[in-house]
Task: structure prediction
Amino acid sequence: MLELRSVRGTGGGPEKTILFGAARAAADIDVLVCYIRDKRDTTFSLGQRAAQIGVNYVEVDERHSLDPKVVPQLAQLIRDRGIDLVHAHEYKTDLLGLWLARQTGVVPLATAHGWTGQSPRERFVYYPVDKFLLARYPRVIAVSTDIKNQLIRHGARAERVTVILNSIDPGNFRRLAERRAEMRRALGCADNEFLIGAVGRVEQQKRFDLLLEAVAPVLKSRPQVKLAIAGDGSLLASLKAQAATMNLGPQCLLLGHRQDIADLHQAFDLFVQSSEYEGTPNAVLEAMAMETPLVATDVGGTGELAFDGVHGLLVASRDVPALRDAITRTIDDPDGARRRATAARRRIEEDLSFDARTRKLEDIYRELVRA
Result:
């Protein structure tokens, strides 16, 4: 099987699913991960991540985003490696998957992770075309019911779209009391301070600007509270400017890109997701697995992962007062926050483990190849 993906920089949540899934594939499934890499991208680092976990990995270089030379290279790769199934993961490889199926006879499969870009070209060209293409696939994996419903509205047959929620390895994400003090010292956070954490690419979708609006009055009225945001992106400079304009000072830590997310959670007292759109957010899964009390916007598949009042507090997107209220409720009710965090960890172990998700996917791989 060929996992096929095109992404820039360090990628996002789908990279965790693709790489760790390949590393844990069943004995009868030989997985090759292929990333299409723009030669102009100097921050691309997926090859190193694949090597660290022993994944069979290859890259196909492109000179620009519409380089036609990619197609014959991929077709030759499929023939050379004896690929039976191509698994595509975003609009470019969704197109390539169907094209390669026609050229080589390989079986096409796609996972719809969501459509998070905000540019006019993405919203009005790429994403509508992608949904049209996905309706032509023999099988699509949707990472939330919301995404499945979108695909059906755009012509996909309901029986061809299977919802498999994102998941996480509870063994790799576990809270360790002895790591807390060390991580908090590294962040300049005293033991008696309350640290709110957030993680994600600093792009419009994540609405970190609204998170600052929600948290600013809390920080000003409670000097012992701090906010740390881990992530890089095109809006990082404007977010820094916003924090400066609000005079948040050392209570607001903008950490940039981090690869030690599990370690950061050791220091967090609360995790907040402020997104206006999500597929099924890996950041929420990580918080649940790490038993970090959770406040999140009820968007995409978030409400299918964490149930409001049971595993966390969920609020409507773009509702700054509601987000602020949920944050203050969590700070003021540590016992309730701890009960929800414990229940969230239990849900990860019982219902949302990575191994269980991988086995569901592999059953679909075998079914498609047999058919």
